[in-house]
Records
---
Amino acid sequence: MDAKKVLEIASLLISKKNLNDLINEILFSIRELVNADAGSIYLYDDEKDELTFKYTQNDSLDISFNEFTIPVDENSIAGYCALNKEAFTIDDVYKIPDNYPFKFNNDFDVLSGYRTKSMLLIPIFDAKNNLISVLQLINKKVVSFGEKVRDFENEVISFSSEDLELVKSLSGIIGVSLENSILYENIENMFEGFIKASVQAVESRDPITKGHTERVYRITHKIIEEMDKDEEFFPDFKMRDIDWKILKYATLLHDFGKIGVREAVLMKPKKLYDDQFEKLKMKARLYACVNNLTKEEYQDLLNDLIRANEPSLLESELSEKIDKYYKVKFKDCYGEELELLDDNEYKQLSVKKGTLTNEERKEIESHVLHTYEYLNKIPWTKELKEVPKIACLHHEKLDGSGYPFGLKSEEIHIFGKVMAVADIFDALTAKDRPYKRAVPIDIALKIIKEEADKEKLDKKIVEFFITKKIYNMV
Ligand SMILES: [Fe+2]
Ligand SMILES: [Fe+2]
């Protein structure tokens, strides 16, 4: 029976990748194997030479615990086990002989009313035989596994030498599973660090939208979390564990491609770039001089150019003036012919709303394609391979009028549809854009609803976002 059980545990442990899940499983399976009432796992940090109390289970007590560290020395039971790298049992921790170097610290028992009695300690090694953990089993009991111990004196017995051998026989597989899991977690942490650095890199190029990525992530995550819970609104929507990771990476990297867009275009507060506008003012002054314009006439011309350069709506009266100025040619004092407005200046000042020409708008829009291309260079695992595609869906519209692919509703992943709502909501309500005032929430919701009515955004998601007031939950 034991051999079969040991094999079962071994295959179960190998299948767990997540460190917390694995630790939980190790404790549960090994406790069950030797019928231990409680157990704890310490992880060893070789750089600091200390043990971190990582997890504990106890059938008799409902306990919450905090992580803490202890030095690897002879003063504590776990520290002694780590230092001497040997497994041992103790029949009763309150009766440790005086000639033993360690003492039992009974703080936990005093606080909780628990009675720790027998113990089994085993060091766990990685494949290279380096210590990585200490496993501590507490109180072998005579009552069934899972049942509470009520009478510690009579229901708790000592761990036997067979128990010790049984746990030892599994320590190799525990070590390898823990090592893999820690490695996996380290790689994941490293990757998350890379994502954080990427977000910072994007936002430091475009400080105007600072915080946008993080906010879009929080809003998207909240909407999805609520959708996952709400069986009435979304009966068929269920998140798998891996989906949360896909969602996180795709959302945090959704604007990563902005790294490939020129900074001047990303942060264009006026229709003309500063150096262009300075040059235009000089030309206007020269034009006024050679044509003997009065000071007032010159000032009027200058005011028109300043007004037209603003991102606000270009009124038709001003637009006509700009058309007129475009045709003006004049000669400087040396007879060289000049245009008051050249083709580029005219094109830029004629922008009806905002500051971007069509070419510049296309360049900004290209950020999603850059996102796709850059993220595709990452060798994603099979489970995460959809991240690049999902990351670049946030500007697609349900009716096919979005970019970069012009996808229709049924072709857009649900995460993309939710991200689109979060992205627009944040763009409208963000308070940190100096040239654009934040839109009040009720107006922003109205705009989003109109977009849904026009088949641009997903109606059900928008309705859910508004009626559940998810914007207030983040
Ligand atoms: Fe975007
Ligand atoms: Fe965005």
Note: The chain has three domains: 2-185, 206-264+363-472, 286-355.
---
Amino acid sequence: MDFLNLSVSTSWWELSKPPLDISTNGHLIDSLFVYTSVLAVFYFILVCIGLFGFSYLYSQKRNKTPYYTYGNKKKHLLVTAFIGAAVFLSVDLNITRLSNNDLLDVFWKWPNPKTEKVLRVEVMAQQWMWSFRYAGPDDQFGTADDIVTNNDLRVPTNTKILFHLTSKDVIHSFFVPNVRLKVDTIPGRITRVWWDANIPGEYDIVCAEMCGTHHYLMKAKLTVYSEEDFNRWRSTSEKLALNANDPDDKNLAWGWKWEY
Ligand SMILES: [Cu+2]
């Protein structure tokens, strides 16, 4: 059991570190976090300087006669508006600009299976598990040679993985901390996400949307293989799938056709 390895000697610093980034673009998300944190700390220090500085400047010791102000003179309003605008422009609008650029330049640049190496996976979320479907040798989803796994996603390194996701019951959220990305799965709708994983190993997939009493149990395992190992697993699984898939089992036949 993995959680037993969290011994008491693990420092809070180790625990507060983000998980290993195994993707090409995860650093974009990390740098947004760092940028936001640095600016928040910067403005926090400014506020502290103001608070303690003015407390000292206008202390009773230094000012025997009290001075009353309501802060409603034009000068005061201008200073307040200037500080407000500076914070809004440098923090909020800048984060919006940076994340918008990342979306348009990277995360919404959908890989095209016709022109590049892409592994397509269909994801079905339900209370409280994840099912994954790979197209078999016929390259079509929803046919008898599909590989279907439960709570077990396996992908090769150096390949873009394109997911189409939906949900059987309520809204869930497909979250892979090691690639920094999450996307909602919504009943009656297909959502998309793509990422790649470049370090072989085993990682967590979790549900990031409160979806019911056993939400906390809704997790799956991500295994990243070298391309060679993945192809070996895939061909073995395709043979097993052909024997095991029952086209009349409505519960298993949830795959859908892809449109590009
Ligand atoms: Cu869920």
Note: The beta strands are 118-126, 129-134, 147-150, 152-156, 160-167, 172-176, 181-185, 191-195, 201-207, 219-225.
